[in-house]
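Students often ask what a holo structure prediction actually looks like on paper. The answer is less mysterious than it sounds. You provide the chain, you provide the ligand, and the output is a string of discrete structure tokens encoding the 3D arrangement of the protein together with thiamine diphosphate.
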Amino acid sequence: MTVMEQRGAYRPTPPPAWQPRTDPAPLLPDAEPYRVLGTGAADKVDPELLRRLYAELVRGRRYNTQATALTKQGRLAVYPSSTGQEACEIAAALALEERDWLFPSYRDTLAVVARGLAPASALTLLRGDWHTGYDPREHHIAPLSTPLATQLPHAVGLAHAARLKGDGVVALAMVGDGGTSEGDFHEALNFAAVWQAPVVFLVQNNGFAISVPLAKQTAAPSLAHKAVGYGMPGRLVDGNDAAAMHEVLSEAVARAREGGGPTLVEAVTYRMEAHTNADDATRYRQDTDVDAWRDHDPILLMERELTERGLLDDDLKRQAADDAEAMAADLREHMNQEPVLDPMDLFTHVYAEQTSQLREQAAQLRAELEVASEEEVASGEAEEETR
Amino acid sequence: MSTVAAKPVTKSATKPATMAQALGRALRDSMAEDPSVHVLGEDVGALGGVFRVTDGLAAEFGEDRCTDTPLAEAGILGTAVGMAMYGLRPVVEMQFDAFAYPAFEQLISHVARMRNRTRGAMPLPITVRVPYGGGIGGVEHHSDSSEAYYIATPGLHVVTPATVSDAYGLLRASIASDDPVVFLEPKRLYWSKADWNPDAPQTVEPIGRAVVRRPGRSATLITYGPSVPVCLEAAEAARAEGWDLEVVDLRSLVPFDDETVAASVWRTGRAVVVHESGGFGGPGGEIAARVTERCFHHLEAPVLRVAGFDIPYPPPMLEKHHLPGVDRILDAVARLQWEADS
Ligand SMILES: Cc1ncc(C[n+]2csc(CCOP(=O)(O)OP(=O)(O)O)c2C)c(N)n1
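The corresponding structure tokens follow.
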């Protein structure tokens, strides 16, 4: 007799009917990116909001072109442009209240500026004078994060702490399509959903991670779909439609504030420039693709809508252009000044109190600097004499 | 440890080549010779890597052999472990020093100890290429010297070339090694050039041999990677002060070539270790201790260290104050005139 025969009529009992913990249907994103502009849905949007978004887009574009120009003049070491992605950047900033927190990635200088930070302060990281040129606590803006997706768990932790405190503060964290492949992205989403943290994740899907296209990054139907597996809603939005972006992010922020938990928003957009000014995009993409997106430019979409509804008057146009020019002039002026740096700062902010080891090294550098400046003076005097 | 057989001499046409080109050629030759060699990483395909080291490999060998991965360092190295378990020889590219950190879990918990935990049944021939170090004006997280983390992890070889021809030879040897190798590429030497003949035999030493780059009699500068050219420059400058400095290029931190280093210090009686990563807990401490253990009775002065400061890597506009340069090395050399009572 075999073991099976011995066991006779044994049949494993089926597991009790399995129930998903959450109905996935309401969590699923739309099949198509959600749009407002040009769909008739914009009729419901406050005309003043549309006009404001327009002005902010114009200002944002100017910021991008100015910063790019500064790299060409050698005033800025590197700039990852968000040209074409301004609607996402602006909407991210405008969806938040002052008390809320923004967790930007290295491409999101514009969101930081749209939040109200002085245009030049947002650029220290990229210019190279200091890593973060502002006080995160003062502005409720985390440092621009260069390691990808690593800021996402921070946003969840801050939101979680805010929820424990019960103060209604929300965190919005930004990441690129490539960044969604990192482990930190997945861990952050999972924590956020389990803790029902008041956090909004904004993925700017601009088609590329440096040279790698989305198809090599994910096989999911959309990045927004990734939300469902963690138990949070995913929203798929046209990232060049500032009104749609504003609506979806504002809703997600409101939901988070009311205790509804996290949302993952995928903004479908396009990176019009190369990865940074140092990158050669011709190695991995065709100009024709870029041209196709030109017709779907965020400013163009907004202009069409405003014109159709008779909201784009000369006043608004001129005022937006003037504002943008003033901002660019201010940025140029600040960036054309040589930053005044004190090498001794190297040791100032490593610990609350300098270690003996750093005091020793600071003394060494101070002595070196003194020798160098004495030599400079001496060579200056020598030059004088030879004249 | 393995040695790569020198290729037969065909014709000898030396041309200037950059270190990046020599590294690319080493990958190409390894892939051509051994179909189990696979390259994977972020942007290694169409773009050829952000430093263009993998340029042309995807076109020549196809995307299955030179693969643009999803953007996930732990995933890149973790899948490389599985590939190696199944008989392939993965060469992974980490885009920058600080972006290798997500992969530390895989490196430390699995890559470094697989041979040991399986009693030798499962060696992992993986090469992890990491561009490292500063001096290129990179923004935050693009300039770390992470070698101390790697050398503190038993089970890994850690090598770093300083010349064009070593870049080729050491990378060939690393890929051929049956043990995991962390291959540290000094970023600021990527564009350094030398006359080099890719068709002539390369001097490929087994991993673990240091080399005397410049003979001298009055003191030894022990260094590696990006600091080698700086030390050679310092040695030239020191001649004016009457110092005849020997420069030892370690090339490999693990294994460490005690013989070459000790033989040099026996001759000179004085030593300075130079590297740009922080001094506290850095490789220099280990090296100084080893030199002291082996050469105590030959030493005329304590072994000194010239290292980067013990600070997070500074913003580019301040990095020149952090990186050990010629002057700081010469200061240390002057301090070698050590008197017991001083
Ligand atoms: C952990 C980590 N790995 C690699 C890099 C190098 N890197 C910088 S940007 C980038 C591509 C990012 O693509 P994506 O997330 O789509 O954002 P985008 O640049 O398109 O805004 C890579 C690979 C990094 N910054 N951090």
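The pocket of thiamine diphosphate is lined by residues A 107, 146-148, 176-179, 206, 208-210, 271, 275; B 42, 71, 73, 95, 99, 102 (CB under 6 Å).
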